Amino acid sequence: MSVNFCGVELAHEVVNASGTFDPLAARRTFGEVAFTDFPFSAHVTKTITVAARQGNRPPRLWEAPTSLINSIGLPNKGIDRWLEEDYPELRKLPVPLIVNVMGFDTDELLKLVGVVTGLEDVVAIELNVSCPNVETGTIIGSDPDECARTVDAVRGLTTLPLIVKLTPNATDPAAVAIAASEAGADAISMINTLRGLALDPATLEPWLGGGTGGVSGPGVRAVALAQTASVCAAVSIPIIGMGGVDSGASANEFLAVGATLVAVGTASFTDPMAGSRIAGELAGLRQL
Amino acid sequence: MSDSRPIAPFGRRSVSIVETRSLGLYQVIKVQDDAAPLVRPGQFHMLSTTVGWGGETGGRPWLGRAISFLSTDGAGGIEFLVDGVGPGTHRLSSLKSGDQLDLVGPLGNGFPEVGSSDQTKPCLVAGGIGLAPILALSQRLELDGVEHDLILGFRNAEFAGAARDWPNASVSTDDGSVGEQGTVIAPLTRALDSGSRTVYACGPPLMLEAVRALCDETNTPAWFAMEAPMACGFGACFGCAVETKDGIVRLCVDGPVLSGSVLAGISSTGRVDAQ
Ligand SMILES: Cc1cc2nc3c(=O)[nH]c(=O)nc-3n(C[C@H](O)[C@H](O)[C@H](O)COP(=O)(O)OP(=O)(O)OC[C@H]3O[C@@H](n4cnc5c(N)ncnc54)[C@H](O)[C@@H]3O)c2cc1C
Ligand SMILES: Cc1cc2nc3c(=O)[nH]c(=O)nc-3n(C[C@H](O)[C@H](O)[C@H](O)COP(=O)(O)O)c2cc1C
Ligand code: FES
């Protein structure tokens, strides 16, 4: 069902979660059909930083009951190479782009938002605030004041909708959402992954190269749904709900608690076309 | 990097098991997959069973499991070879004819094309379950009439039972119970001395590293089908990172076959070696 998100008309409610679907790698594997039949109504990019990042040392994955713990570490080529190599290709997608960025300080964030805001086919910017403020060490997204300052710093730079992606690892995500909204955020997306720890069964030492990791998948859905419901009740801006969505029925739950869009992440790993299936199932449910 | 790789149908599909049998201590499962008749040796699929996947004791297996193919009839009949090392591979090994399998693939690059006119005699080396892509390549070379060496290493006679259908292979076992005692390195050294020139290898990290070091020393071009833990198999999760001289690559899309020239060393990317 077509839906209006911050003034942008999207073909249906299902987008991909940042960092869980790479259209360029999918095209190498599945051919042009991965573009022409793109499963989502908008493409949210993996988090882009100013400098290139290698990501964390392996191992990066741990399979837990109906969930995945990852410590990927935001590998990406940095904004300059993204702009040169990936953006011209991503523009060929039949859907609009939402660019997810993360700055480790205000200057970085200003640079990222400044570059992205002028780009054609980019309809919104998503701020990944699940990173520490290098000056204070606080995870920006876990603290209402830090989050408000961050949104405030970039708000004047762009007229594009600014989406703030909340971390569930905050004491009170609704308070962070209110602060972001008051500072001028146009939308909230949530949840990012929940902090989790996997131990090597043989040594009982941390398994993942990054120490702890982020938990995603159906196992986190109840937490995501509760947090989404409380944030939807607290702010009036649109919400992109996510966390363990793997069917039209589970997507519909996020819409029921007030989300405008639903993002699908881990479910794409087991089926690259999960997004299309979920959008189809959702349309069926909404027609009833 | 070859981008003429066979392209996979988009999405996950269900196929029927048409036959199962054991090969040494491994299990062969054959499916009929009409949607993707072409696969290249070294490519793999992400497999899960339609029934009994997820929600078992301990909640695993849940994500798909990366499995290379052992043989193909070129018309969608594909055999997989499974070594039961954990919940996913045990579940796959328990499949019977008529059961349904969900798969995504073929994935990854596969071994580079070996032309029959190549002057460099291929030498294929496998250790343990590394057998599958190597035997797939051997089958392809035989069809193309390319003469090659085939060197297979196993832990012991029980595992070496998997080599029974390849009488021309030189077999070694760690305990000497079948074939030559020791690793694949001695027969590989002899093959290189007698004119074998390009090496294609798959096996446990320790073996691959020994083969890599030998090829490096002797300036022998080599291709390695490698393993890393994988969640998606098509470049979506960035979980299958492997370090190369050119930086970290995603093994599922940039591999699983990597040239020895980009590898400084091969180590296990999981903490416990599945072998
Ligand atoms: C490209 C490629 C091709 C392959 N081809 C074949 C093939 O042809 N045949 C074949 O049999 N195998 C093949 N493998 C290996 C196969 O994918 C693995 O053995 C399989 O995924 C193991 O799953 P499991 O559930 O049986 O075992 P797991 O329990 O997943 O155990 C395997 C290893 O994973 C680690 N581990 C343990 N628990 C966890 C956990 N909770 N989360 C994450 N890791 C854990 C440990 O290191 C363990 O030794 C291939 C792998 C790759 C990458
Ligand atoms: C492997 C992996 C990589 C991710 N990378 C990013 C990222 O780069 N940026 C980001 O904002 N979120 C990232 N996420 C979080 C997802 O976008 C999403 O918020 C989370 O996984 C919950 O949704 P899911 O349960 O549907 O996967 C990642 C998640 C996973 C599993
Ligand atoms: S397994 Fe997901 S990127 Fe390679």
From TrEMBL, chain A:
Any GO BP annotation: 'de novo' UMP biosynthetic process
NCBIfam families: PRK07259.1
Location of the protein in the cell: Cytoplasm
Domain Dihydroorotate dehydrogenase catalytic stretches: 2-283
Main location: cytoplasm
Family, similarity comment: Belongs to the dihydroorotate dehydrogenase family. Type 1 subfamily.
Entry keyword annotation includes Oxidoreductase: yes
Protein name: Unannotated protein
Keyword terms of this UniProt record: Cytoplasm, Flavoprotein, FMN, Oxidoreductase, Pyrimidine biosynthesis
Automatic annotation (TrEMBL), chain B:
Any one Gene Ontology BP term: pyrimidine nucleotide biosynthetic process
Cofactor: [2Fe-2S] cluster
Alphabetical UniProt keywords: 2Fe-2S, Electron transport, FAD, Flavoprotein, Iron, Iron-sulfur, Metal-binding, Transport
Molecular function per GO: 2 iron, 2 sulfur cluster binding; flavin adenine dinucleotide binding; metal ion binding; oxidoreductase activity
Limits of the FAD-binding FR-type domain: 10-113
Gene3D superfamilies: Dihydroorotate dehydrogenase, electron transfer subunit (2.10.240.10), Nucleotide-binding domain of ferredoxin-NADP reductase (FNR) module (3.40.50.80), Translation factors (2.40.30.10)
Family statement drawn from the similarity comment of this UniProt entry: Belongs to the PyrK family.
Record-given protein name: Unannotated protein
Taxon lineage: unclassified sequences, metagenomes, ecological metagenomes
